[in-house]
Amino acid sequence: MPKLRLIQISFLIIFASLLSACSKSGPAMVATANPHASRAAALMLEKGGTAIDAAIAAQMVLTLVEPQSSGIGGGAFLLYWQNDQNKLTTFDGRETAPQNAGEGLFLDKNGAPIPWPVASIGGRPVGTPGVIALAWKAHGQYGRLPWRDLFQPAIKLAKDGFAVTPRLSKAIAKSQDALKSDAQARELYFLPHTMAPLPVGFMLKNSAFAQSLTLIAEKGPDGFYKGPLAAAMVKAVKNHQSNPGHLSMDDLASYEAIERTAVCGPYRAYKVCGMGPPTSGGLTSLMILGILENYNIAALEVGSATAMHLFTQASRLAYADRDVYMADDDFVEVPVKGLLNKSYLRSRAKLINPVEDMGKAAPGSPSGSEKALMKTAGVKQREYGTSHLSIVDDQGNAVSMTTSVERGFGSHIVVGGFVLNSQLTDFSFVPVKNGVKVANRVEAGKRPRSSMTPTMIFNSDGSLYATLGSPGGSRIIEFVTRAVIGLIDWDLSMQASFDLGNVHNRNRITDLEKGTNAEAFATQFKAMGHKVRIGKITSGLHGIRITKNGFDGGADTRREGMVIEVGK
User: Which residue among 8, 68, 375, 493 is least crowded, i.e. fewest CB within 10 A of its CB?
Assistant: First the structure.
């Protein structure tokens, strides 16, 4: 065959492949914690981008409009479903401890743990950020639009400005004392003459962030992990007046996001998948579900006290094991298979009394636990600065991504227009207990244990059923798991599953959400022996369910999220 003819045929094949890749095959949907982020993600989908493209664009906007919750100065965990290959993978963009950080990072000169409110502000708690590396790695494999295009919505919004929301204004006011100690934070989040927190409706512009994003858009991760932006981060961390840290240029330059295998388990006729260590979220959620699979939850009234009592008891048991066994499994032995073994979970379920609170649960002894280290000790980890987004694109590819800076506004250090994380406080402050090394102790290069629980659910035929997740500290696990129960056991819509009142027991006290149906459980729970606390519980669930009638999206009404369907 003539060479020219072969070239023509090859060209036609390539053109046809490109045309097929860019063609619309169905609607798409996004659910994020902020309308600006949802619109940015939707715009990428309208341009033919994948769920990964849309997620990256949304994260850049969230960094700007929801700085108290997540951003490029923090970390993330991402589940990705490649529909045409029936392939699920996960990306670990969790922060790492600097190479000069040791076991005593959060101990004072007398060897006592530094109080969390003190330890979590300043340079000491800043880990090497992972969001940009995660985005770059995921985009390289599953993105379709040019990298630089993904940054344009956030750059434009940073230059033009956006109206401060009630949630952001309240967050600034709550953290104002610590924020005012940082020069860039003062300039960004307070009125220039009165130094009052920015009021609702104020048009906030962030030219420094626009410049940072432009640099990263042009140079890729080198624009973040090397050069002037990296140097500025290191300087801010090491030169913090009251609480300097250890982040170095080498830490930034050597950071890598990791592609990992998802952890999965059965629940009823479905398969539920999540992120494995270094987050405890996927494992703990699957353990709660595995324990509850021994009970007929579907036969109980939707969201009833009886059902939620069983939920609290399964949570007690799962959290007891979480505290002992879960940490970064690149550094410690995590008995994943043993924790998810059906016989083990059945034995744990037998410890539940359907009409009485068991009190503080003891950890079990799953297979492989003889290699595990000692219980996490010291300060209870908190993860208040977190967000979640769920996306399904027109090809059926999907993202479930939970992203965080740890506490609200992270370390309260602002560099390049974005907040640096305080994730190192998710390590155990106490490295040794009773002469035994603690699994989640600080070690150089290690990733602190998290509670983030990005989740996907699959039908019995292997097709995607739902993608969901939430912020909320160590309560994230229960937020997400309760929503999964709503979807599967009670066949609720995504929104209805989110709207159920929150009930929690992280092996301590039973928390009931004020102003919801859960508050009414107090009398019955107390009669069962529960120690009850009623208060505000702010989940931030965002998810998408795929039904025979199309997409069913939900955005937690406790926050400011928005669901957008594209191309219907």
Answer: 8
Residues 329-384 have pLDDT tens digits of 999 999 999 999 999 999 999 999 999 999 999 999 999 887 665 544 333 445 46
Burial track 505-532 (b if 16+ CB lie within 10 A, e otherwise): bbbeebbbbeebbbeebbebbeebebeb
Separation of alpha carbons 343 and 315, rounded Å: 18
Cis? peptide before 266, omega within 30° of 0:
no
Q: How many CB atoms lie within 10 A of CB 365?
A: 15
| Distance of alpha carbon 355 from alpha carbon 346, whole angstroms | 18
The domain spans of the chain are: 261-355+375-381+448-552
CA–CA gap between residue 430 and residue 66 (Å, rounded): 32
One of 128, 165, 279, 386 is an active-site residue; which one?
386
Longest Cα separation, the chain:
87
Q: How many residues does the chain have?
A: 568
Q: Where are the alpha helices (DSSP H) in 220-295?
A: 222-225, 227-238, 249-253, 281-292
Contacts of 228 (CB under 8 A, 6+ apart): none
Token pair in block for residue 110: 């007398």
- pLDDT tens readout for residues 238-270: 999 999 999 999 999 999 999 999 999 999 999
3-state helix, strand, coil in the chain (%, to 5): 40, 20, 40
| 311-315, 323-327, 394-398, 481-485: segment of lowest average pLDDT | 323-327
Q: Closest Cα partner for 466 from 525, 394, 545?
A: 545
Are the C-beta atoms of residues 543 and 467 closer than 8 Å to each other? yes
Alpha carbon 291 to chain centroid, angstroms: 24
Contact between residue 453 and residue 282 where contact means Cβ atoms under 8 Å apart: yes
Task: For residue 140, give Cα distances in angstroms to 134, 143, 221, 468, 553.
Answer: 10, 6, 12, 24, 28
431: left (phi over 0), alpha (psi -120 to 50) or beta: alpha
Q: What is the DSSP string of 355-405?
A: TB---SPPP---TTGGG--BPP-SSPP---EEEEEEEE-TTS-EEEEEEEE
CA-CA distance, 138 to 78, in Å (whole number)?
Answer: 9
Strand 270-274 to 436-437 pairing? unpaired
Three-state DSSP class for 550? strand
CATH architecture of the region 261-355+375-381+448-552: Orthogonal Bundle (1.10)
Question: Could you say which DSSP state residue 142 is in?
Answer: H
The rounded distance, in Å, linking the Cα atoms of 526 and 509 is 11
Nearest to residue 155, comparing CAs of 64, 51, 41, 52? Answer: 64
**Can you tell me the distance from the alpha carbon of 513 to that of 535, in angstroms, rounded to the nearest whole number?**
5
- CA-closest candidate to residue 509, choices 526, 529, 532, 527: 532
Pairing of strands 532-535, 510-513: parallel
- Dihedral sign from CA coordinates of 377, 380, 385, 391: positive
Active site residue 386: yes
